[in-house]
Structure formats: structure tokens, C-alpha cells
Design goal:
two-stranded antiparallel sheet, 6 helices, alpha+beta
């Protein structure tokens, strides 16, 4: 049995393929089992496309397609980048019993899926910047607190200081602190712009 022909767009890598040119009919149940039938990865867009058949070996089942955003983590042991997909929050899901419809959807997605932007604060590709990334997560979870502002001002890098200045709960008092003591001239200038805005101007 031949593998299903598929037009692979530039930038996409097929990392796993057990998608065969066969439809779910009696005697071919073995072609519709396993955790995945097909997996496609695009590193520049930080996207994974995963295809399963569910329920496994059930001829009345359907193809289940999931698009996931992922982030990269540099692995110093292998000197490579590990992919960490967000299975909890799929970007898109699609299901169909038709192999032809699945192929059309796959080819469409490879052409049109937008890139995902890694929101983490990194030193370089795949390497987290600490403690600034921890501050960012704390800001998301608990909002703006005096203790967090103090930590970001004393130990945070320019990226997390800018993130804080853009927070919806920022106050003039906090902005003044970064205008005086921001880590870079750009941070201080951003704080100055905020102070001169209608929202914070005295």
C-alpha cells in the first residue's frame, strides 16, 4: 500500500508519516491505529500539525487534525532544539471521515497558517532569561504588586521592564520609578512617553 501523496509547502518538515492511500474498509483496520498517522512541523512558524484516526481501528471513526503552537528549548546535551507543543490549547482542530478532504485541509493549512510568536523572555533562541521570565509569569498570574515592581526594577532586563510599563494596571508612581531608574535609555524614554500621555499627565 502506498503512502498518501501530499504537496509539502516550503518550510514544513514531515517528521512522521503513516498516512496511507487507503480508505477505512474491512480488512484494513491496521492502517488506522497508533497515536499519530502524520506529523508536520514548521520551525519558522512554530507550528505542528498532528493527524490521528479516532477511535483507533474503528471503521466508522474520523481523522482528527490538530494544529499546535510550540516553543523551542535549547538542549545543551544534544546541542539541538527540543519542541514543546501546547497540547492544552490547540490553535485549531478539524475532523473528517474523508481522506481527500483531509488532504485538501492539510495542503491549505501548510499554505496559510500564521507564525506563532514565542511570548517568553529569552536570552537567545530557546534559552530562557531568568529571573525576567519568572517575573513575566508572575505578572500574568498575580498582576502588578509592589514586591514584583521592586524585583523587576532591581533585577529585570529591558524586556520585562517594557512589559510592565505596558501593563493595564500600571500607575504614574510606578512609571516614575522606571523613568528615573530604568535599566536602559529606551526604557526611561518609554516611561517618559507614558508620563506625557493624556492618561498619566498631571
Amino acid at each position: 500500500m502506498n503512502l498518501q501523496p501530499l504537496r509539502i509547502e516550503a518550510g514544513w518538515l514531515m517528521t512522521y508519516n503513516q498516512l496511507y492511500e487507503v480508505d477505512p474498509i474491512k480488512g484494513f483496520e491496521g492502517y488506522f491505529e497508533g497515536s499519530s498517522l502524520l506529523m508536520l512541523v514548521n520551525v519558522s512558524r512554530l507550528k505542528i500539525i498532528d493527524v490521528e484516526w479516532r477511535p483507533e481501528r474503528d471503521l466508522n471513526g474520523k481523522y482528527k487534525l490538530v494544529v499546535l503552537n510550540f516553543v523551542e528549548n535549547f538542549n545543551p546535551k544534544t546541542n539541538e532544539f527540543d519542541h514543546d507543543p501546547d497540547w492544552e490549547n490547540p490553535y485549531l482542530t478539524f475532523s473528517t471521515a474523508s481522506r481527500i478532504e483531509l488532504v485538501l485541509k492539510l495542503e491549505e493549512l501548510m499554505r496559510t497558517l500564521p507564525a506563532y510568536e514565542d511570548q517568553r523572555i529569552t536570552i537567545k533562541r530557546g534559552v530562557i532569561s531568568e529571573p525576567s521570565e519568572s517575573y513575566r509569569l508572575e505578572l500574568i498570574k498575580g498582576g502588578v504588586t509592589n514586591e514584583l515592581v521592586k524585583s523587576i526594577l532591581e533585577n529585570g532586563n529591558a524586556r520585562i521592564q517594557n512589559v510592565l510599563l505596558d501593563h493595564k494596571d500600571i500607575t504614574r508612581e510606578i512609571i516614575m520609578k522606571f523613568y528615573k531608574n530604568g535599566i536602559t535609555k529606551k526604557v526611561k524614554n518609554k516611561a517618559k512617553q507614558h508620563l506625557n500621555s493624556n492618561r498619566f499627565k498631571e
